[in-house]
Protein 1
Amino acid sequence: NKRRRSSESEPEEESSSEEEEKEEQKQETEKSSTSDLNAAEKPEEGMKKPVADQQAVPTAPVCQTASNKPSCKPVIFVPVDRSPEIQEARLKLPILAEEQVIMEAINENPIVVICGETGSGKTTQVPQFLYEAGYTSSNGIIGITEPRRVAAVSMSQRVAKEMNLSHRVVSYQIRYEGNVTDETQIKFMTDGVLLKEIQKDFLLSKYKVVIIDEAHERSMYTDILIGLLSRIVPLREKVRMPLKLIVMSATLRVEDFTENNRLFSVTPPVIQVSFLSLGSVPDDTLICPFGAEIFQILFFLWGLSGILVFLTGQAEVHSLCRRLRKAFPFQKNNSAEESVEEIRKFKKSRKRKKTTALPQIDLDNYSVVPVDEGDEDRDAETDDDIAGSDVDLDLGDGDSEEDEKPDSSLPLYVLPLYSLLAPEKQAKVFRPPPPGTRLCVVATNVAETSLTIPGIKYVVDCGKVKKRFYDKITGVSSFRVTWISQASANQRAGRAGRTEPGHCYRLYSSAVFMDFEKFSAPEITNRPVEDLILQMKALNIEKVINFPFPTPPPAEALAAAEELLIALGALKEPPLTGRLKEQQAAKLSCPISPLGRVMATFPVAPRYAKMLALSKQHDCLPYTITIVSAMTVRELFEEFDRPAVSEEETAKLKGKKARLLQIQKIWAGQGALQKLGDLMVMLGAVGACEYAGCTPKFCEENGLRYKAMLEVRRLRGQLTTAVNSACADTGLYVDPKMKPPTEAQATYLRQIVLAGLGDHLARRVQAEELLDEKWKNAYKTALLDDPVFIHPSSVLFKQLPEFVVYQEIVETTKLYMRGVSAVEPEWIPALLPPYCHFGKPLENPPPSYCPETGRIRCHRPSVFYRVSWQLPAVEVD
Ligand code: CDP
Ligand code: MG
């Protein structure tokens, strides 16, 4: 039989006719692949093969197993040349003890779940096991997805180092960059990158193994990848190019994957990797306010062991870092004794300056918990730290009362860690601290699961996290500091002491802990999903509602996403016939439109993708690309409204802020350009920065974030490539410096922005409509009942144009619009027909169903009643 299964490790032996056959089959399968997803409530037949059957056709070299199962192939062992130190360190990792069990399971099953606490070696070791067992070859590589870019980059570097291989072989790919080559055999990437690859090649044929790492984080793309892979794995089986799927989780809560019979028909084996229990420490109780507490803890921890402090956001991290550096001065030439002396002095000076601290967190005490406390169910927050949001956690300026404690503190080597930090600064935490100092990392949630910092013995956990919350329907986001989940707290505690007993200091009582949610919700359940839905439609998954999500997103979020995509023209609108219910059902399974296909090729949110798709007109593309890049990269400008530690610093921040406001006015341009508002400021900032060569110095002087500007540059390049390949005749190239747009172009740009951000239209409440004081200077939007305002940082804050579109609404003290541009009312009917009533305004619009248009959501006529019929100024198609 020519069609025998050939071993994965011997691809060279395959005859060419077999290759061709495979290719044919692959194409066939690709055609049918997404119809499976559309139909499939149930997993398809091919998947229901009993396990024994699968064992008979091993897809990889099988190790001689403990149970002495006859292996079909001799063990293939690809040698790896590791240094003795690396080898020694590896052998200490718990996962090494499980190598054989793991490899047997992988050899014998298409899908395997591996659970092991953070630091047990999953991310760094499993790819090595596979490599050594011959899973990579010229026609297939190992892919590993990470929810965070930081992890994808640093893990690829770590594994390359451990295996003594070059970055050409162990590589990474994240949205803006990568070092993948033809030689790449192990590829770390973000989950979004793999999702894009599925769009180009549904069968992921270049991979032999796909590892979904950090599955417990339940990031939206990870969830969707698992759903897609649950279908891709059996399809690959069908075309006789088996693919192995490995799902790795830091917690044992994997039943959403394993017990979900919509996902996998055969329950995949779950392998658990556990640490040996270390000794525990007795409880200890201290009472003092937050902030001061951290000092107190640090003062009486001794030894050289590292300390990891969890705070909520970037501003808090910086603030504490500065205060710690003052309190535990570290200079290169300081001897330990000198430092201790300085600490004494500092403590004395602090004692004199006694102030009453008003901590923001309502904590009365905290408990010290031994690290290896029973509960194995660990999970993590899915949210990363968020820089510069308006919620700030005041660290207080509390005093410490620790003077009786033994003082053996060494100078601290204090390092911040958060996701917006420049990569080279992030990498510092992995290096040993200078001799005679102790490492103290002050981190946001980013250190919770993705990264393991070596040598940490003490963890200080504030118990809170700064999270972005979205309204399910309107997408309005707000930042809130909330308590973490119990799983998250345990995860944080678990970051301490893997090689010796560790301690976790929780700045909250066990009573507070008991009130925590057990787990945090998967990301897909609490954010807008329109980008995801567009990607899925581009994969021809029309009935999104039937997709095997590990946890399905809420129905209202799905409906809102479909409706937005219909309004943007990305989906083909269903005919408005039949009953309301039928219409609604039709709306939930619209196919993608040609415009939608173009939009799906751009790696940006659908609203921005629409803007790009329209911008070929009037040579607007380079500007739209820049605006979209700037809007996609969050936090272009430095945040100067952060709490300062001293008066001197307050003055400095004030000066910098004034300078930024001044220069933003210049970037906002003159005449018609000004109406483009904050988007013109973005254009001006990017142009000016590139003109100056995009140096850290220029950014520092002008209130720009250097890292953000580099990302804008990268994204501009990438979007230009995407635009060129979507519309072959554009022949666009990036001119970084870019001339300012002409007045006419600025006007077209405003229309383009209106067409893309249409549902983000707002109209100022007129004097005669003022309901009460709270509506003064307020805007009405189509999505919200409450007044919204232009953000004070906007250049249009004082001008108050009648109609504006906004990038986003954030909720702080009020609902604020950010990224605001002025639009002209006469454009609205032409560019946003789905959002207008072409008729007399209704006196009392029904709340959710409009009989005039048959549309499900009725837009408040009061917002639009002045819209008149005039000739369109730009054509949408
Ligand atoms: O994925 P998992 O959390 O199970 O563990 P890992 O990331 O593979 O880390 C295994 C070990 O490698 C940990 O003890 C880390 O401290 C160490 N490691 C390191 O020293 N430097 C890195 N850049 C990454 C990991
Ligand atoms: Mg890991």
Protein 2
Amino acid sequence: DWTMAAFRDEAIEMIRKQVGDGRVICGLSGGVDSSVAAVLIHEAIGEQLTCVFVDTGLMRAGESEEVVRLFRDSYNIPLIHVEAADLFLGKLAGVDDPEKKRKIIGATFIDVFDAEANKIENAKFLAQGTLYPDVIESVSFDGGPSVTIKSHHNVGGLPERMNLKLVEPLRELFKDEVRILGRELGLPEHFVGRHPFPGPGLAIRIPGEVTQEKAEILRKADTIYLDEIRKAGLYDEIWQAFSVLLPVRTVGVMGDERTYDHVLALRAVTSTDGMTADYYPFTHEFLGACATRIINEVRGVNRVVYDVTSKPPGTIEWE
Ligand code: XMP
């Protein structure tokens, strides 16, 4: 009889066997997978684990603070927190091609991570929250988008360059199983139940050039959208919900004034694995209420639209 409790014990045994007394570095992304991997490995080897969290400035509102709090304060897991927002935004200046953005973010991430990891003496292993679908995707697709998808997510290139062996305790699990394991390990429910978030973060939710100002507008609008979804009790029915700040300005009116501001697109999909997806059928009342709140509360947005494209033929993200 397979249970998550048994899986956990077995995984802990295997991690101990694999790493012996070597030091393990784990890159935290702020997401569920890397967090669950880190907590599991910490249970197995305690102080031999150091986590590195690179803040790219492309996270959702309050996300980096939450990760730091969770790891440092609740779990007491050694965490190196690198503030690299200016570096990332600087490198992204003037770039609008989606794949170039991904490459820049991936390369910058590796540079920052590498520099931090080099300071950790006797580091022999690199831990990653690779899941079973990641393993499948990275071998079964030939040049398709999936390969690129995982290029940043799995910190590709790092182990070779750093001469580290990989520790991937979640390799046999699917997303829903990782969530069960996370609960088993005592991670808070709202953290474990979080929607997946792409490695390149908000950069691929700002088509065109990414700026600090646009990222701020997007964070504010997205917080309101997710807040409305939670209030309506719909968060757990949805695979991913997020906002996209479009590089298009349209005319509006506010009081007696004419406005000329950004369009914000709202997206929400149901899915089981992210490979196919259907758009979520919100009521018109719900969408109208979101639009009103966002336009009233967020400066820089004067029009809100809802994306009703399923995957295929669309993708979940806009870039
Ligand atoms: P798409 O947009 O291809 O997304 O339908 C499928 C799933 O993958 C996520 N995604 C990414 N994750 N790095 C990631 O780590 C990426 O570059 C990336 N692009 C898309 C997306 O959020 C969805 O869950």
